[in-house]
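Allow me, if you will, to draw on your knowledge of protein folds for a short while. I have a record of one protein: its chain in single-letter code and its fold written as discrete structure tokens. I remain grateful for any guidance, and I place the record below:
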Amino acid sequence: MPQITGQEAELTSIPALLARNAREFGAKPAYREKEFGIWQTWTWSEATDQIRAIALGFLNLGVERGDHIAVIGRNRPAHYMAMVAAQMVRAVPVPLYQDAVADEMAYVLDHSGARLVVCGDQEQVDKVIEIQERIRHIEHVIYNDRRGMRKYDHSRLNALADIVAEGRASHHRFDDELDRRVSELAPDDTCVMLYTSGTTGRPKGVVLSNRNIIEASKSSSSFDSLRKGEEILAYLPMAWVGDFIFSVGQAYWNGFCVNCPERAGTMHENLHEIGPTYFFAPPRYFEERITAMTIRMEDAGRLKRWLYRSFMAFARETGPKLLDGKAVGTWDRIRYWLGDVLVYGPIRSREGMSNVRVAYTAGEAIGPEIFEFWRSLGINLKQLYGQTEASVFITQQPDNEVRADTVGVPSPGVEIRIDESGEVLYRSPGTFVEYFRNPESTSQTKDSDGWVATGDAGFIEESTGHLRIIDRAKDVARMSGGELFAPKYVENKLKFYPNILEAVVFGAARDRCCAFVNIDLTAVGSWAERNGIAYASYQELAGNPEVYAMVQSHIEEVNRTIAQDEMLSGCQIHRFLILHKELDADDGELTRTRKVRRAVIGEKYHDLVDALYDGSSEIHTETEVTYEDGRKGSISATLEIRDAAVVSETQRKAAA
């Protein structure tokens, strides 16, 4: 396992990396943020000065070693600085999902025992105030954005700017204490605590040490030759381990610049302005961008549509070969160059990916069609496989060994093995310390030798050493006839179609597979407008017969492709319905990282699942929903259930 050695031996904490960066390239940009339409920049020297002032302010508030400081808000330099300042005083930063409702926040704040909460704005402050009476250990609430805060009771509220000012004013009292705490930081001290998404139950607090974060950042940076000149856009939730490793771990290890968008709605515009060289996005992001692109092309003129379809069809064959350095004929190179001038280059520019040297996707499986689409444009999109408990990295795809059906080889320093049940196990320097206040779950997940059970089923290809993930181990099952059931594999194929936002497939221990489908309101709404179909709501559009016919055609096309896979051909979808509402994290149907909570959905919509299997042609249902302001309500609907054509075993063998 790689260890920090030689000149790097002193770089055993994020504050130590900060000091190195200020010393060696203090004039280089560390953070940028667009606010009020103008990009603001902090150099490493300026960031160091600001972080130290926040840390002094924390000491002035009485922060003790081992205290937990929660950070809730969108990606902003001040929030990253607050997390590093917490580390400097030997407290533990605990970032939370900013879109979590108050009750979800209450669990994390209570479980972590947070004494201080740093909030981004009024919305986050309101959530904390709502639950503060239940959680007595919160002593101070600090807010970054002053807007809307003037008339609040400030007896337990502080503006972050005031904390900074008080820190600077009191530096004579606390300088020595701060220096003492920074000097005490050791590799095995806690760097951050991140909560799991809670796909199968209550979120768990994953304790990650300085060693975990720095070793993972060092080895992964070496793998992709990252350097201090990289530019990234930090837009993913700060509570997610991926953002922490990219925007803190790797950024501080390499000394590159972290750019923060003005707000969520300007992310694509800001991406275009920054032109990052290193980019990460979950599969859903790439799916959504294809949807938006498809809608634009449908609205374009005939010539433009023809150019797009013709060149993209060619790119799917030639683009990945060129990207991987494989042999391509001269005429094909000329055609691709022409396509790059007319189509591929403009798309990359519009998507803000003209300068991308390395791009990754992870978080869940990505559909092969979606993956290959982006690589065909000349974007070096790769897959990595990781977990919060691994400090992200378990496997990565080396350049020129990128495939849609694997997640690559073990990351540097990572060992992988497959147990007798088919579950993937790993151990590495990035392996988490423990689940906070949960020794039972810790021992169930990590054994005495440091091997961690991922919960995913997969196998290692003998010929290449690449890992293939089949599905979540708990979701991989057998159908009643013995066929393998891997729902995620099918769901990802369905989500390649821009009209399908989400899909949930059922079939474990049953005689056939059936599915729930969520349509994409943007894509299907655009289609409806072009075809003169009027609708007043998502529910009305989802129940339209023409929409059902369109979704049925997608399902039957997916069935034909699944039938070609001998191992998974039993996963063809026999019956389906289109849900009357979008699956929503606020309703507990998705995690905050947009992963399907399969068990919750199966239980909540058990009447719909039963109807799929009992031969019903329609089903009336009533569902509780959560509105944006937190109020509860209910909606009812009568849903149509349709059969989809499948490829029989006889037909499959004849075609083969």
The chain has a mean pLDDT of 93. The chain has 22 helices and 29 strands. The two ends are 46 Å apart (CA to CA).
